Structure formats: C-alpha cells, structure tokens
Amino acid sequence: MVHKQGVLSDIIRIAEISPGHIGGEFLFSILHHTPPHLKERIVEVLSISKYFLNAKEKERMERMLKEEIGFAVALLEGIEDPALHSRLHEAFNFDFENCKRRIITIAGLLYNRKIMREAAAAFRNNSKERRANALEIMEQVIPRKNAQILVVLLDNISAGQKVQKLQSFHINRKHEIPDSILRDGTDIYSAWTVCLALRSAAYHDSNYIQAVNILQTEKSLLRESAAHYLINFKENHPNHFSTLAGTFKTNIDEIMKNKHENTISDFEKVLVLKGTALFEGTRRTSSLKLFPSFVK
Predict the structure, then answer these.
(1) How many CA atoms lie within 13 A of 45 on its CB side?
(2) What is the largest CA-CA distance in the chain?
(3) What is the pLDDT of residues 215-250, one digit of tens each?
C-alpha cells in the first residue's frame, strides 16, 4: 500500500508541475482509489486545468462532496461532545479544517473554483457585506441547499453554532465519531487524532485488531501509541488478551520492540513542545509536521 501511494504521489506531482501532461480522464479514473490527502491534490489539478466533468463524473463528485460534508458534520459533533477528552476536541478541529479545505476544492471543481476560493476568504472575514455578497454569488452557481450548507461550514462561527444550524438539513454521516477513528485511521484522520484515540480506546476485540494493524505503519508515533494500547490491554485483561493474541497470531516481541524505553516518549515530546512558549500558538498536529523525526 505504501508503494502504491508512492507511485500515485509521483503521478500527481507530475500533473501538478505540468497539468496538461497527464490526461484529466486518467486522473479522474484513479481519483476513487486514493486516500483523501492525495485525492484532494488530484481534484485541485483537475480544477486548475478546468477539466470538464461529464454527467457520470459530476454525479460521482457530488457523492464525494456529500460524504465530505457528512464527515465535517461528524467532526463538528465530536468537537462538541463533552464525553470526549479536550485533546480530541482540538485534534478534531484540525481534521475539520482539512475536511473543509477538501470541500472547497471539490466544490471548486463541481461549480466554480474562483468563486469557492473567494467565498472561503470572505467567510473568514467579519464583514457582513462581504459575506452577503459571497452567499449571493454562490447561490448563482451552486444549488441552493448545497450553497446554504457550505455557507454554514465556511462561516466564522463556533462548532456548536454550526451543528445547530446544520440540524435542519438532516445530513447523513458515513463516519461515526469516535468509533470510526481506529477503523478508518490516517486514511481520513490526522495521525495525532489516531494516537489520541488509541490512548483512550476501550479494551475490546475490534480496537485490538486495529491496534495490531497500526503496528505495521511507518510512523513511529503511531506504532508507539498502538504498542501502548496493546501493553495496557495485556496488563488489564491478560486472559482476554492471550485469547486474542493466539487467535490473531500477535507477535508480542514486536509489541515490546515498539515500547520506547526513552525517559520521554515521542507522544510526550509533542505535548511538551506544545506547552512551551515557543510553540504556544501551534496546533499539536502542526508540531508533528515541524518535527518529522517524531513520525518516522
């Protein structure tokens, strides 16, 4: 899978450098076989090159937009869920911003890239006049219901206000939070969100399987969090753990290898950095980007 993503990244990079070098039909054909972070780049290339969607392609893009809107709503509800840890709320905020950016990109290809980018900028502004103008222009090129939903998602209001305003639209959610975090992993969530979910996950079979799968990833921070979960599972429910380890042939030595013996773990380093004055305004997930060694 890593190799496949590497090949896809190379193809997309060529398309980004020279949009006309790789055909839009080919890019669209691989669109639905790529993870979201690559999918967004493909859609952006198609949008920049003014690729014309045929009826079937437009229908597929509309489904993609609907799924992303559903995911955005699920994240907003997660941010407002008092039962979840505040660190997860912050991680969901980061994921929501990523999701919102994908929505703008998809809507740009479906409707009008320039209008969507200008609307996004207008709704970051507190000027009522600019926001009203943006809405008026959006409703000229976007179906009214979609335009109204997009306005709420883009608007500079709290997550709670967004959730309240979106209730009347009865938006379907494909991803339930927090249950889908370990299942879908970094395909749609940030690595930091997955780490936080592992640190608070319940000890049951499906989470065990997901943690074992995460042990195979390249990112050390994810492997460390998965090992932390499995070791705690073993300590808290030794009999159940032994049964699962036998059933799924879990390599205990591999788990222990991923248990860092450092005085401070990678997970703790990120929290320490976040707490220092230098990184006071930096999101935890952004801290990971600044320090790639944490996620190798």
Answers:
(1) 26
(2) 64
(3) 888 888 898 899 889 999 999 999 999 898 888 776
Listed residue (128, 130, 165, 160) closest to 150, CA to CA: 165
pTM for the whole structure: 0.81
50: left (phi over 0), alpha (psi -120 to 50) or beta: left
Q: Half-sphere exposure (CA, 13 Å, Cβ side) for 59?
A: 3
Which residue's structure tokens are 């808290």? 236
End-to-end CA distance of the chain: 17
Written as six digits, the tokens of 30 are 């691989």
The contacts found for 269-277 with CB under 8 angstroms, 24 or more apart, are: 269/294, 270/192, 270/221, 270/294
DSSP 84: S
**104 is written with which tokens?**
């703008």
For 126-154, the pLDDT digits (tens) are 778 888 888 888 988 999 999 999 999 99
Average pLDDT, the chain: 82
